[in-house]
Protein backbone atom coordinates (compact mmCIF):
# COMPACT_ATOMS: atom_id res chain seq x y z
CA UNK A 1 0.00 0.00 0.00
CA UNK A 2 2.88 2.40 0.74
CA UNK A 3 4.46 1.68 -2.66
CA UNK A 4 1.14 2.14 -4.47
CA UNK A 5 0.68 5.51 -2.80
CA UNK A 6 4.22 6.59 -3.67
CA UNK A 7 3.85 5.55 -7.33
CA UNK A 8 0.32 6.90 -7.63
CA UNK A 9 -1.05 3.55 -8.82
CA UNK A 10 -4.09 1.60 -7.61
CA UNK A 11 -3.01 -1.08 -5.16
CA UNK A 12 -4.78 -4.01 -6.94
CA UNK A 13 -3.01 -3.18 -10.23
CA UNK A 14 0.35 -2.91 -8.49
CA UNK A 15 -0.14 -6.33 -6.87
CA UNK A 16 -0.82 -7.89 -10.28
CA UNK A 17 2.26 -6.22 -11.77
CA UNK A 18 4.47 -7.43 -8.93
CA UNK A 19 3.21 -10.97 -9.27
CA UNK A 20 3.88 -10.93 -13.02
CA UNK A 21 7.39 -9.63 -12.34
CA UNK A 22 8.05 -12.38 -9.82
CA UNK A 23 6.90 -15.01 -12.31
CA UNK A 24 9.16 -13.63 -15.05
CA UNK A 25 12.11 -13.61 -12.65
CA UNK A 26 11.38 -17.16 -11.59
CA UNK A 27 11.19 -18.40 -15.17
CA UNK A 28 14.51 -16.70 -15.99
CA UNK A 29 16.14 -18.20 -12.92
CA UNK A 30 14.93 -21.71 -13.79
CA UNK A 31 17.08 -21.78 -16.94
CA UNK A 32 20.26 -21.12 -14.92
CA UNK A 33 22.29 -23.87 -13.19
CA UNK A 34 20.96 -24.31 -9.68
CA UNK A 35 23.31 -23.97 -6.70
CA UNK A 36 24.54 -27.15 -5.08
CA UNK A 37 22.57 -28.25 -2.03
CA UNK A 38 24.43 -30.20 0.63
CA UNK A 39 21.68 -32.39 2.07
CA UNK A 40 23.69 -34.88 4.07
CA UNK A 41 22.84 -35.22 7.75
CA UNK A 42 25.96 -35.03 9.92
CA UNK A 43 25.72 -36.74 13.30
CA UNK A 44 27.70 -34.26 15.40
CA UNK A 45 25.96 -31.20 13.97
CA UNK A 46 22.53 -32.70 14.59
CA UNK A 47 23.61 -33.74 18.09
CA UNK A 48 24.55 -30.14 18.92
CA UNK A 49 21.13 -28.99 17.73
CA UNK A 50 19.39 -31.72 19.73
CA UNK A 51 21.24 -30.66 22.87
CA UNK A 52 20.29 -27.04 22.27
CA UNK A 53 16.61 -27.88 21.83
CA UNK A 54 16.68 -30.04 24.97
CA UNK A 55 18.33 -27.39 27.12
CA UNK A 56 16.26 -24.50 25.77
CA UNK A 57 13.02 -26.50 25.88
CA UNK A 58 13.62 -27.35 29.53
CA UNK A 59 14.70 -23.80 30.44
CA UNK A 60 11.66 -22.16 28.85
CA UNK A 61 9.18 -25.01 29.45
CA UNK A 62 8.56 -25.19 25.70
CA UNK A 63 7.21 -28.66 24.80
CA UNK A 64 7.67 -28.11 21.04
CA UNK A 65 11.43 -27.79 21.46
CA UNK A 66 11.59 -30.83 23.74
CA UNK A 67 9.64 -32.80 21.16
CA UNK A 68 12.13 -31.78 18.47
CA UNK A 69 15.02 -32.84 20.69
CA UNK A 70 13.46 -36.24 21.27
CA UNK A 71 12.62 -36.72 17.59
CA UNK A 72 16.20 -35.87 16.69
CA UNK A 73 17.63 -38.30 19.22
CA UNK A 74 15.34 -41.09 18.09
CA UNK A 75 16.26 -40.48 14.45
CA UNK A 76 19.99 -40.61 15.21
CA UNK A 77 19.54 -43.74 17.33
CA UNK A 78 17.49 -45.48 14.66
CA UNK A 79 19.46 -44.50 11.57
CA UNK A 80 23.06 -43.77 12.66
CA UNK A 81 23.63 -46.30 15.49
CA UNK A 82 24.14 -50.01 14.94
CA UNK A 83 25.33 -52.40 17.65
CA UNK A 84 28.02 -50.32 19.32
CA UNK A 85 29.03 -48.35 16.21
CA UNK A 86 28.04 -44.85 15.19
CA UNK A 87 27.99 -43.57 11.62
CA UNK A 88 28.77 -39.99 10.64
CA UNK A 89 26.53 -39.30 7.64
CA UNK A 90 22.97 -40.11 6.59
CA UNK A 91 21.73 -39.22 3.11
CA UNK A 92 18.98 -40.50 0.85
CA UNK A 93 18.13 -43.37 3.15
CA UNK A 94 21.70 -44.60 3.58
CA UNK A 95 24.24 -44.17 6.37
CA UNK A 96 27.86 -43.69 5.42
CA UNK A 97 31.33 -43.50 6.99
CA UNK A 98 32.32 -44.48 10.52
CA UNK A 99 31.73 -41.78 13.09
CA UNK A 100 34.59 -39.61 14.31
CA UNK A 101 35.38 -38.87 17.94
CA UNK A 102 33.35 -35.66 17.79
CA UNK A 103 30.24 -37.55 16.62
CA UNK A 104 30.30 -39.94 19.58
CA UNK A 105 31.10 -37.17 22.06
CA UNK A 106 28.52 -34.62 20.91
CA UNK A 107 25.79 -37.25 20.71
CA UNK A 108 26.60 -38.48 24.23
CA UNK A 109 26.37 -34.90 25.50
CA UNK A 110 23.05 -34.44 23.69
CA UNK A 111 21.67 -37.63 25.26
CA UNK A 112 22.68 -36.35 28.71
CA UNK A 113 21.08 -32.99 27.94
CA UNK A 114 17.82 -34.74 27.16
CA UNK A 115 18.08 -36.91 30.27
CA UNK A 116 18.29 -33.73 32.36
CA UNK A 117 15.22 -32.39 30.55
CA UNK A 118 13.15 -35.58 30.88
CA UNK A 119 14.73 -37.90 33.52
CA UNK A 120 14.35 -40.76 31.01
CA UNK A 121 17.12 -43.19 31.94
CA UNK A 122 17.24 -44.76 28.47
CA UNK A 123 19.08 -41.71 27.14
CA UNK A 124 21.62 -41.79 29.96
CA UNK A 125 22.24 -45.48 29.21
CA UNK A 126 22.80 -44.60 25.56
CA UNK A 127 25.25 -41.84 26.52
CA UNK A 128 27.23 -44.45 28.46
CA UNK A 129 27.18 -46.86 25.51
CA UNK A 130 28.39 -44.11 23.17
CA UNK A 131 31.26 -43.12 25.44
CA UNK A 132 32.33 -46.71 26.13
CA UNK A 133 32.40 -47.35 22.39
CA UNK A 134 34.29 -44.12 21.74
CA UNK A 135 36.95 -44.99 24.32
CA UNK A 136 37.52 -48.37 22.70
CA UNK A 137 37.94 -46.74 19.29
CA UNK A 138 39.72 -43.44 19.88
CA UNK A 139 41.57 -43.56 23.22
CA UNK A 140 45.17 -44.74 23.43
CA UNK A 141 46.00 -45.71 27.01
CA UNK A 142 49.77 -45.66 26.55
CA UNK A 143 49.93 -42.05 25.40
CA UNK A 144 46.67 -40.83 27.03
CA UNK A 145 45.59 -39.54 23.62
CA UNK A 146 42.16 -39.07 22.09
CA UNK A 147 42.41 -39.51 18.34
CA UNK A 148 40.20 -37.92 15.70
CA UNK A 149 39.39 -41.18 13.90
CA UNK A 150 39.68 -44.93 14.27
CA UNK A 151 42.83 -46.83 13.21
CA UNK A 152 42.96 -47.41 9.47
CA UNK A 153 45.42 -48.97 7.04
CA UNK A 154 44.83 -45.97 4.79
CA UNK A 155 46.08 -43.56 7.47
CA UNK A 156 49.78 -43.92 8.28
CA UNK A 157 49.47 -41.32 11.05
CA UNK A 158 46.56 -40.78 13.41
CA UNK A 159 45.98 -37.19 14.48
CA UNK A 160 44.68 -35.90 17.77
CA UNK A 161 41.67 -33.60 17.76
CA UNK A 162 42.27 -31.02 20.48
CA UNK A 163 42.11 -27.54 18.90
CA UNK A 164 38.78 -25.76 19.38
CA UNK A 165 37.59 -23.84 16.34
CA UNK A 166 34.09 -22.65 15.43
CA UNK A 167 32.83 -25.60 17.46
CA UNK A 168 34.43 -27.58 20.24
CA UNK A 169 36.99 -30.18 19.23
CA UNK A 170 36.26 -33.86 19.58
CA UNK A 171 38.65 -34.06 22.54
CA UNK A 172 37.01 -31.18 24.40
CA UNK A 173 33.53 -32.59 23.81
CA UNK A 174 34.67 -36.06 24.86
CA UNK A 175 36.34 -34.84 28.05
CA UNK A 176 33.27 -32.83 29.00
CA UNK A 177 31.08 -35.88 28.40
CA UNK A 178 33.32 -38.12 30.52
CA UNK A 179 33.21 -35.72 33.47
CA UNK A 180 29.44 -35.40 33.14
CA UNK A 181 28.89 -39.15 32.98
CA UNK A 182 31.02 -39.63 36.08
CA UNK A 183 28.81 -37.10 37.88
CA UNK A 184 25.70 -39.11 36.97
CA UNK A 185 27.01 -42.63 37.41
CA UNK A 186 29.74 -42.21 40.01
CA UNK A 187 32.15 -44.35 37.97
CA UNK A 188 35.56 -42.90 38.75
CA UNK A 189 37.20 -44.49 35.71
CA UNK A 190 35.58 -41.89 33.45
CA UNK A 191 36.99 -39.01 35.48
CA UNK A 192 40.36 -40.75 35.72
CA UNK A 193 40.60 -41.14 31.95
CA UNK A 194 39.64 -37.49 31.49
CA UNK A 195 42.24 -36.47 34.06
CA UNK A 196 45.01 -38.34 32.22
CA UNK A 197 44.25 -36.50 28.99
CA UNK A 198 43.85 -33.15 30.72
CA UNK A 199 47.20 -33.50 32.46
CA UNK A 200 48.74 -33.52 28.98
CA UNK A 201 46.62 -30.75 27.54
CA UNK A 202 45.87 -28.31 30.37
CA UNK A 203 49.12 -26.36 30.12
CA UNK A 204 48.78 -25.66 26.38
CA UNK A 205 45.13 -24.72 26.88
CA UNK A 206 45.98 -22.18 29.55
CA UNK A 207 48.93 -20.83 27.56
CA UNK A 208 46.77 -20.31 24.46
CA UNK A 209 43.14 -20.14 25.55
CA UNK A 210 42.03 -18.61 22.24
CA UNK A 211 42.74 -21.94 20.53
CA UNK A 212 41.27 -23.99 23.38
CA UNK A 213 38.13 -22.15 24.43
CA UNK A 214 36.05 -25.25 25.12
CA UNK A 215 38.98 -27.09 26.69
CA UNK A 216 39.55 -24.29 29.20
CA UNK A 217 35.95 -24.78 30.33
CA UNK A 218 36.60 -28.50 30.74
CA UNK A 219 39.73 -27.76 32.78
CA UNK A 220 37.58 -25.62 35.09
CA UNK A 221 35.05 -28.45 35.48
CA UNK A 222 37.91 -30.86 36.19
CA UNK A 223 39.37 -28.61 38.89
CA UNK A 224 36.10 -27.72 40.60
CA UNK A 225 33.89 -30.69 39.80
CA UNK A 226 30.37 -30.84 38.44
CA UNK A 227 27.56 -29.35 40.48
CA UNK A 228 25.36 -32.36 41.21
CA UNK A 229 21.75 -31.52 41.98
CA UNK A 230 19.92 -34.56 43.30
CA UNK A 231 16.16 -34.89 43.74
CA UNK A 232 15.89 -37.52 46.46
CA UNK A 233 12.93 -39.62 47.60
CA UNK A 234 9.27 -38.76 47.07
CA UNK A 235 7.13 -39.60 44.04
CA UNK A 236 7.98 -38.32 40.58
CA UNK A 237 5.79 -35.23 40.84
CA UNK A 238 6.89 -34.17 44.32
CA UNK A 239 9.98 -32.31 43.18
CA UNK A 240 8.77 -31.07 39.79
CA UNK A 241 9.05 -27.52 41.10
CA UNK A 242 12.72 -28.09 41.90
CA UNK A 243 13.49 -29.63 38.51
CA UNK A 244 11.74 -26.75 36.75
CA UNK A 245 13.62 -24.20 38.84
CA UNK A 246 17.03 -25.76 38.21
CA UNK A 247 16.38 -26.06 34.48
CA UNK A 248 15.33 -22.40 34.25
CA UNK A 249 18.58 -20.95 35.64
CA UNK A 250 22.19 -21.22 34.57
CA UNK A 251 24.32 -23.44 36.81
CA UNK A 252 27.86 -24.03 35.60
CA UNK A 253 28.73 -27.70 34.92
CA UNK A 254 25.40 -28.94 36.22
CA UNK A 255 24.35 -32.57 36.57
CA UNK A 256 20.64 -32.68 37.44
CA UNK A 257 19.33 -36.10 38.41
CA UNK A 258 16.48 -37.87 40.13
CA UNK A 259 17.95 -40.34 42.62
CA UNK A 260 17.42 -43.99 41.72
CA UNK A 261 19.46 -47.22 41.98
CA UNK A 262 20.95 -46.81 38.50
CA UNK A 263 22.32 -43.36 39.28
CA UNK A 264 25.15 -44.31 41.56
CA UNK A 265 26.53 -40.80 41.19
CA UNK A 266 23.80 -39.64 43.55
CA UNK A 267 24.71 -42.32 46.07
CA UNK A 268 28.40 -41.48 45.70
CA UNK A 269 27.82 -37.98 46.99
CA UNK A 270 24.85 -38.53 49.29
CA UNK A 271 26.01 -41.84 50.73
CA UNK A 272 23.98 -45.03 51.07
CA UNK A 273 22.46 -44.11 54.45
CA UNK A 274 18.89 -42.90 54.69
CA UNK A 275 18.55 -39.13 54.34
CA UNK A 276 15.61 -36.75 54.62
CA UNK A 277 13.73 -36.38 51.31
CA UNK A 278 14.40 -33.18 49.43
CA UNK A 279 16.77 -31.52 47.01
CA UNK A 280 20.53 -31.72 47.55
CA UNK A 281 23.13 -29.49 45.90
CA UNK A 282 26.57 -31.12 45.92
CA UNK A 283 29.87 -29.50 45.01
CA UNK A 284 33.28 -31.12 45.34
CA UNK A 285 31.69 -34.19 46.97
CA UNK A 286 30.12 -32.06 49.72
CA UNK A 287 26.33 -31.85 49.82
CA UNK A 288 23.98 -29.31 51.29
CA UNK A 289 21.27 -30.30 53.75
CA UNK A 290 18.01 -31.24 52.06
CA UNK A 291 15.89 -28.27 51.00
CA UNK A 292 12.22 -28.25 50.09
CA UNK A 293 11.53 -24.59 49.36
CA UNK A 294 12.22 -22.62 46.16
CA UNK A 295 14.01 -19.74 47.84
CA UNK A 296 16.29 -22.07 49.78
CA UNK A 297 17.18 -23.84 46.56
CA UNK A 298 17.79 -20.55 44.76
CA UNK A 299 20.18 -19.56 47.53
CA UNK A 300 22.14 -22.78 47.13
CA UNK A 301 22.30 -22.33 43.38
CA UNK A 302 23.45 -18.73 43.75
CA UNK A 303 20.47 -17.26 41.93
CA UNK A 304 17.86 -14.76 43.03
CA UNK A 305 14.12 -14.77 42.42
Poorly predicted residue ranges: none
SSE-based structural type: alpha+beta
How much strand content do the residues show?
5-15%
Taken in chain order, the helices and strands follow as HHEHHEEEHHEEHHHEHEHEEH
Chain-averaged pLDDT? 91
Largest sheet: 4 strands, antiparallel
Alpha carbon gyration radius: 24 Å
Query: Could you estimate the helical fraction of the residues in percent?
Result: 55-70%
Instruction: Compute the number of strand runs.
Output: 10
Tally of alpha and pi helices: 12
Question: Rough shape?
Answer: globular
**How far apart, in Å, are the first and last alpha carbons?**
47 Å
Structural key phrases:
305 residues; alpha+beta; four-stranded antiparallel sheet; globular
Would you give an account of this structure?
- The chain is of the alpha+beta class and 305 residues long.
- The chain is 55% helix and 13% strand.
- It contains twelve helices and ten strands.
- The protein has helices at 2-7, 11-30, 43-59, 63-80, 101-118, 121-138, 170-185, 188-207, 213-224, 240-248, 264-270, 294-301, and strands at residues 41-42, 81-82, 85-91, 94-98, 139-140, 145-146, 227-232, 254-258, 278-283, 286-287.
- The strands form three sheets. Strands 1, 2, 3 and 4 form a four-stranded antiparallel β-sheet that branches.
- It starts with a helix and ends with a helix.
SSE arrangement:
Layout lengths: L1 H6 L3 H20 L10 E2 H17 L3 H18 E2 L2 E7 L2 E5 L2 H18 L2 H18 E2 L4 E2 L23 H16 L2 H20 L5 H12 L2 E6 L7 H9 L5 E5 L5 H7 L7 E6 L2 E2 L6 H8 L4
Parallel strand pairs: 7-8
Antiparallel strand pairs: 1-3, 2-3, 3-4, 5-6, 7-9, 9-10
Helix pairs in contact: 3-4, 3-5, 4-5, 5-6, 5-7, 6-7, 7-8, 7-9, 7-11, 8-9, 10-12
Amino acid sequence: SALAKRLGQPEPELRVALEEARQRLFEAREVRPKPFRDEKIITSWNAMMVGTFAEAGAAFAEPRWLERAERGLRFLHEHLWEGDALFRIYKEGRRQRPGFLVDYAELANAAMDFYEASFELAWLRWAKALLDSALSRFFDADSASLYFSEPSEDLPLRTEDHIDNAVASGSSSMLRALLRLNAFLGEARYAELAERVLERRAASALENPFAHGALVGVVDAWLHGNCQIVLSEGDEAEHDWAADLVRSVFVLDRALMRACPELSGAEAVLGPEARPPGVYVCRERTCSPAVNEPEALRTLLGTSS
